[in-house]
Design brief:
Blueprint (H helix, E strand, L loop, with lengths): L10 H12 L2 H13 L3 H29 L3 H8 L6 H33 L10 H13 L2 H19 L2 H28 L6 H7 L8 H14 L6 H6 L8 H29 L14 H5 L6 H35 L3 H21 L8 H4 L3 H29 L1 H9 L9 H28 L6
The structure holds phenylalanine.
The site of phenylalanine (PHE) has 15 residues, from helix 1, helix 2, helix 10 and helix 14.
Length: 458
């Protein structure tokens, strides 16, 4: 006798869990620094187009595949196309989860440490001094034990939430953390805008200067739209598999995409208003969060509290995403191998943590394999997943709907729970085809750059 599948308690719970997966380090860390380095508003505009044109149909595709089959990726592909090679796309998703979570857990640990440092008032020493801040950050991430301690703690919390199940763990915590993130982020943005010169952040983020629009920014925005919506590895298939038949997939997808975009933009406002008010460099890049912000927070009144709140919500955002990544692996072992939830989560959460230990160590002198990979193991895992695994997974899923499942069958599933049944199958075919082609081009562009030293565009 099989155990009935776990289900989300409410539609709101599902939307908050799925947007919790989407909203993560990608929104609060990657988007602002990418926009900062690529012309601000021009990048934002392209990013928005990519999210709605390429992202929307693939989010709905993943939800529909999960809900139709009530299974996580491998089982989902196997149900619709038994005895075919499609199940390997599911396996690719499980492998991507391993790769992403190994470095994501390390960054999650850094964030927890920074929340703690801010709370203790340690940013005081960095006030107005980005060099000191940069030294502190580098000394921390290249050291051996401290980042490992924080990574282990982060992964432990992640495992704890998942062991408690879909409704009692993932949904329960997303319902607490997502509203907290939104409220605190709005407060931080208003606080930032009220600082002298804070309003220039709005011009920077929202007034496009088309001269700034470079080809490389377009490629970057496309790639990032995948990462930020958690697409291409079956996270949304897995979350969709816990849905009841009466939910409206189109409106759910619009909610998830809307919240993800809104939160990235508010985070951009909160960060750039503070950066502009204190005359720091918006194009600092990856160090914007860990280097620039700790040196500017102590300069604003109540900076200790603002800094702590900022890293606290960043931690929550990272956690709700990490949970969704581990859930893909856990669900595979529950669905296909009949393991219990706690056994699957502990065993695989544990092994992913061990791979993460190597990611962390690769940033210091302990495990230097840069000579072999051309980059640190940490950067390699990030590169492999965001440049290849997720886009390939997303492209293959779009092709799967177009060629194997069929747009008609896909729409039949989408219509369940919807009042209007008037989505044009031509439009869906066009959107999925554009999605697949665009992704194929990005991957090709990347490969050409690797092989020949310069990309086709960018
Ligand atoms: N969407 C998450 C972020 O923006 C990252 C993520 C990627 C989560 C893939 C799940 C799957 O940080």
């Amino acid at each position: 006798m099989s155990i009935p599948r776990e289900k989300w308690g409410t539609k709101l719970g599902f939307i908050l869990a799925a947007s919790g997966s989407a909203v993560g380090i990608g929104n609060i860390w990657k988007y602002p620094h990418m926009a900062g380095q690529n012309g601000g508003a021009a990048f934002t505009l392209i990013y928005l187009i990519c999210i709605f044109v390429v992202g929307l149909s693939i989010v709905i595709g993943e939800f529909a595949l999960g809900r139709k089959t009530q299974l996580s990726p491998v089982g989902a592909y196997l149900t619709i196309a038994p005895k075919s090679l499609w199940k390997w796309v599911g396996f690719l998703g499980v492998a991507s989860a391993y790769v992403i979570l190994s470095f994501y857990g390390v960054v999650g640990g850094w964030i927890m440490n920074y929340a703690f440092l801010s709370m203790k008032g340690d940013f005081e020493l960095l006030s107005g001094n980005p060099e000191a801040s940069s030294q502190l950050f580098n000394a921390f991430i290249t050291s051996t034990w401290s980042p490992l301690f924080w990574q282990l703690l982060f992964m432990f919390i992640c495992i704890y939430v998942i062991v408690n199940g879909v409704k009692g763990g993932i949904e329960k915590w997303s319902k607490i953390m997502m509203p907290t993130i939104i409220i605190i982020l709005i407060v931080l943005a208003v606080r930032g805008l009220s600082l002298p010169n804070g309003l220039s952040a709005l011009t920077f983020l929202f007034k496009p200067k088309f001269a700034d629009l470079s080809a490389s920014a377009i490629v970057l925005a496309l790639g990032h739209s995948f990462f930020t919506l958690s697409l291409g590895m079956g996270t949304m298939i897995t979350y969709g598999s816990y849905l009841k038949k009466n939910e409206n997939l189109l409106s759910s997808a619009l909610w998830v995409i809307g919240l993800d975009t809104l939160i990235a933009l508010i985070a951009g406002v909160a960060i750039f208003s503070t950066v502009f008010a204190l005359g720091a460099d918006p194009a600092e890049g990856a160090g914007l969060i860990f280097v620039v912000l700790p040196s500017v927070f102590p300069e604003i009144p109540g900076g200790q509290i603002w800094g702590t709140l900022f890293f606290l919500i960043l931690f929550m955002a990272a956690l709700t995403s990490a949970i969704s990544i581990l859930e893909v692996v856990t669900a595979y072992f529950i669905d296909q191998k009949g393991w219990s939830r706690s056994r699957a989560t502990i065993v695989f959460g544990g092994t992913i943590t061990i791979v993460g230990v190597f990611c962390s160590l690769s940033l210091g002198d302990n495990l230097n394999i840069t000579w072999f990979l051309g980059m640190s193991f940490f950067d390699f895992m990030d590169y492999l997943s965001s440049k290849y695994m997720l886009p390939i997974g997303g492209m293959l899923m779009a092709i799967f709907i177009l060629k194997t499942w069929s747009v008609e069958e896909f729409l039949r599933e989408v219509y369940v729970g919807m009042d209007s049944k008037k989505i044009s199958s031509q439009l869906v075919t066009i959107l999925l085809s554009i999605g697949a082609l665009v992704i194929a081009f990005i991957i090709l562009n990347e490969i050409v750059e690797k092989l020949f030293g310069s990309p086709i565009i960018g």
